[in-house]
UniProtKB/TrEMBL annotation:
<dbReference type="InterPro" id="IPR051871">
    <property type="entry name" value="GMC_Oxidoreductase-Related"/>
</dbReference>
<comment type="similarity">
    <text>Belongs to the GMC oxidoreductase family.</text>
</comment>
<dbReference type="InterPro" id="IPR007867">
    <property type="entry name" value="GMC_OxRtase_C"/>
</dbReference>
<dbReference type="InterPro" id="IPR000172">
    <property type="entry name" value="GMC_OxRdtase_N"/>
</dbReference>
<dbReference type="InterPro" id="IPR012132">
    <property type="entry name" value="GMC_OxRdtase"/>
</dbReference>
<feature type="signal peptide">
    <location>
        <begin position="1"/>
        <end position="24"/>
    </location>
</feature>
<protein>
    <submittedName>
        <fullName>Protein HOTHEAD-like</fullName>
    </submittedName>
</protein>
<keyword id="KW-0732">Signal</keyword>
<dbReference type="Pfam" id="PF05199">
    <property type="entry name" value="GMC_oxred_C"/>
</dbReference>
<keyword id="KW-0285">Flavoprotein</keyword>
<feature type="domain" description="Glucose-methanol-choline oxidoreductase N-terminal">
    <location>
        <begin position="281"/>
        <end position="295"/>
    </location>
</feature>
<dbReference type="Pfam" id="PF00732">
    <property type="entry name" value="GMC_oxred_N"/>
</dbReference>
<keyword id="KW-0274">FAD</keyword>
<dbReference type="InterPro" id="IPR036188">
    <property type="entry name" value="FAD/NAD-bd_sf"/>
</dbReference>
Amino acid sequence: MDFQIFRFFHLILVAVFIFHDSWCYSDEAGNYSFMKNATSAPKLSHFDYIIIGGGTAGCALAATLSRDATVLVLERGGSPYDNPAATDIGNFANTLLDVTPNSWSQLFVSEDGVYNSRVRVLGGGTVINAGFYSRGEEDFIKEAGWDREEGEAAYEWVEKKMVFEPPAKGWQSAFRDGLLEAGVSPNNGFTFGHINGTKFGGTIFDREGHRHTAANLLEYANPNKIVVYLHASVHKILFTTTKGNQRPKAYGVIFQDVSGVVHKAELATQGSMNEVILSAGAIASPQLLMLSGVGPAAHLTAYGVNPVILDPPMVGQGMADNPMNPVFIPSPEPVEVSLVQAVGITTFGSYIEGESGLSLSISLTRSFLDGVLKLVKKTKFPTHLISKFFEPLDLRLNLTAKAGVIIQKTNGPLSRGHLELRNTDPDDNPSVTFNYYQDPEDLNKCVEGLSTIMKVIDSKGYSKYKYDGVSARGLLDIILALPTNLRARHITSTFDLKQYCKDSVMTIYHYNGGCQVGKVVDDDYKVLGIDALKVIDGSTFLKSPGTNPQATTMMLGRYMGQKILQERTIIRGKEEEETVKTEL
């Protein structure tokens, strides 16, 4: 009878963790007592969970786990609360283009010749992105094997803290009307759901234009059980020494603060469920696995990584970045400052989105391109041609706010690339190849997407925001004249949309892969062949979910945090039960 009561007590605890998803504590965003500079970290510390990366998934995961375990978050960047004005909607472009050494946006150029950015700030991509919030498609949830009801609850947990309905003002409303005229129907109104047709999705900007980020989810955290170290650069995951057929087991990490002091954090010795969890994103997670000795052995040996812990060939493989192609439309009428709000979800696999009223700082634009030139020296692209191409840039990018930009994003995508080490510096960029439009199906989606954009521009609903006599096809050519990437321009781009797609491709910053489910991690996100190590972030995705991955990435952090706690409670109950039996 005593054992039945004991088990009943633990079942109650499990039920509490499953259904009680609104735990709140006293710390408010921006005033977290547990957020500290890594320089204050002890040389050695112990936690139940060590999370590498305080980004889109990491913050949700850490807040959840801290309810019933001690948690350490190691974030290589700083705090978004240090400069809140930089996150406001009016500063979106300038913050994204600020690639100075201590900025939140770290520039890299893929081997495809496309500019891209990694994020280095608490809150991850939610601090510098366009703010659009839309859930993943039903098929994505089903293919991931997630419980639908628990996934719904995880989405709602995020939405309660940081998601809003956007104001449907002039330009965005005209864009919506143009999408409907172009055949992207039906009109689905405002919804978080991923539904074919035209809709307004959520936004992480409030009505005053202030951004709310994944860092705000740490308001849910138990401040007595979590520590967040900022400017903490993780150099290596530590593994136990193996003998014979023993599996390697993660037991800690080495990280460095801004003063160059090295620290070690280890998993607490008590607790069989304790783990190191990589949540560093699709670039840093596979990179850090490799630097820790987990990856293709020949590649690691070539860069002096020693010892090689495990030789999984798929680490760094399956890298993908949804290609994006923009069209810039000068407007005869004033337009509101707006980021992505209305979106067309087509049946042919292209998502049509729009922004208006953006402004660029010329000094930051020049700084950005200076950064590009420095990085180009590490690639196959000729620097003298790029420098010449950039000479007239100041005039061309002195953009007025009276304009809109409509883009097509290819879903999936099917084209895949890979990530490799360039050196052994964890703060430097690895070599990344995405192979944009390598798959013909991706290219066909782009052509149909651009054709739809031209219909939107020429529609009656959008006509107020386009100069008379300007053709939609002529507007596409404006992009070809700008240094939007480092790729060659072909004369055929002016009449061949397939070539235009290839020549004008840009990133929409939705890259994924490198630690994919079924290839590097299992369905529970455990690294195959290694104990006490998980990867929980966008690097595990087989494709980008929905029109924007941030909603599902945050949901994943919350969802997996809940699942881990449920399993932890059950196992702890069994261990305690065994202890009681032994004592009796």
